[in-house]
């Protein structure tokens, strides 16, 4: 991980511009469009982790407290929980989602919004997935599982019966088993669709994107094939954050000194980036 301290707004923009130029971003790859995402944290020492880790509750229990609106997808429900913390109780809730943004200014705001510590903006390049893709259903359906330890084939059976796209895309369940183990202990980045942004005004204002965390896989070093995957187990309440967000050569960490935060916030205010604009409701 590269860590750089900046003292001016122009220096901040210059560092990000250099990162994107050096990595030729955005660019097309065999996997899709590789592009840059940003995350601001007001304390540079905080690790990147999902809010569910701080809630002390299980996702299944949290979702059970949420009022689901007609026509809402599971992704839209969890995005709403992530941004509005809407539950029947006043207890702290969370999800397996991690907030990122496509905006360098929004990320900078969140790095500066609390002035007690040095903040940081994390910069990473990722090929995002779309809301409707099967990969999203795989990782989010795990939130509905009751058991603490689940067999991969058990999740495959649920997906196969609940979503027609699995039987349409895959020839057999063995291929779904393999698809699950290919991403379950990693995760994926999602750029929300227009309909989701209309429903979620905060995410829209923040140009938000969401990383969906995977789960710990039992014996993750085992060779993963359509024959072996079905007998593997994973832990629905043990969430994985990839090394991409911890200590990876492509991860850039831009540190904002606490003494400079007020200056950065004034600059952002001139561009109409403030708490009022980012939290419109």
Task: Describe the 3D structure.
Helix content is 37%, strand content 22%. The protein has 281 residues and is α+β, with helices and mostly antiparallel strands. Strands 4, 6, 7, 8, 9 and 10 form a six-stranded mixed sheet that branches.
What are the salient characteristics of this protein?
281 residues, alpha+beta, six-stranded mixed beta sheet, five-stranded mixed beta sheet, globular
Net shape? globular
- Give unreliable regions as ranges: none
Structural class: alpha+beta
State the separation between the terminal residues, measured CA to CA: 36 Å
Helix % is 25-40%
Order of helices and strands: EHEEHHHEHEEHEHHHEHHEEEHH
Please give the largest β-sheet: 6 strands, mixed
Number of strands: 11
Mean pLDDT equals 92
Number of helices: 13
Radius of gyration: 19 Å
Share in β-strands: 15-25%
Brief characterization of the structure:
The protein has 281 residues and is of the alpha+beta class. It has helices spanning 9-22, 52-55, 59-64, 74-84, 104-112, 134-141, 152-162, 164-169, 173-183, 194-199, 201-205, 261-270, 275-278; strands at residues 2-5, 27-29, 32-41, 97-101, 119-126, 129-130, 150-151, 187-191, 208-217, 233-240, 252-256. The chain contains 13 helices and 11 strands.
Structural topology:
Blueprint lengths: L1 E4 L3 H14 L4 E3 L2 E10 L10 H4 L3 H6 L9 H11 L12 E5 L2 H9 L6 E8 L2 E2 L3 H8 L8 E2 H11 L1 H6 L3 H11 L3 E5 L2 H6 L1 H5 L2 E10 L15 E8 L11 E5 L4 H10 L4 H4 L3
Parallel strand pairs: 1-11, 6-8
Antiparallel strand pairs: 2-3, 3-5, 4-9, 5-11, 7-10, 8-9, 9-10
Helix pairs in contact: 5-12, 7-9
């Amino acid at each position: 991980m590269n860590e750089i301290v900046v003292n001016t707004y122009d220096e901040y923009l210059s560092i990000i511009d250099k990162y994107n130029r050096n990595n030729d971003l955005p660019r097309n790859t065999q996997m899709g469009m590789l592009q840059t995402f940003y995350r601001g944290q007001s304390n540079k020492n905080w690790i990147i982790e999902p809010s569910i880790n701080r809630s002390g509750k299980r996702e299944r229990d949290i979702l059970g407290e949420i009022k689901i609106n007609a026509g809402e997808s599971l992704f839209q429900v969890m995005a709403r929980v992530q941004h509005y913390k809407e539950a029947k109780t006043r207890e702290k809730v969370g999800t397996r989602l991690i907030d990122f943004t496509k905006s360098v200014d929004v990320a900078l705001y969140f790095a500066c919004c609390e002035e007690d510590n040095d903040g940081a903006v994390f910069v990473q390049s990722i090929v995002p997935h779309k809301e409707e893709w099967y990969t999203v259903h795989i990782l989010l359906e795990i939130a509905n599982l009751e058991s603490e330890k689940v067999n991969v084939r058990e999740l495959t059976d649920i997906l196969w019966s609940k979503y027609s796209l699995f039987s349409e895309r895959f020839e057999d369940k063995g291929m779904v088993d393999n698809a699950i183990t290919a991403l379950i202990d990693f995760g994926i980045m999602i750029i929300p669709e227009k309909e989701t942004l209309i429903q979620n005004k905060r995410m829209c204002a923040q140009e938000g994107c969401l990383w969906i965390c995977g789960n710990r896989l039992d014996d993750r070093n085992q060779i993963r094939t359509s024959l072996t995957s079905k007998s593997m187990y994973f832990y629905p309440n043990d969430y994985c954050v990839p090394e991409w967000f911890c200590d990876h050569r492509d991860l850039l960490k831009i540190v904002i000194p606490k003494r400079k935060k007020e200056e950065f916030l004034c600059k952002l205010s001139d561009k109409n980036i403030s708490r009022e604009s980012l939290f419109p409701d």
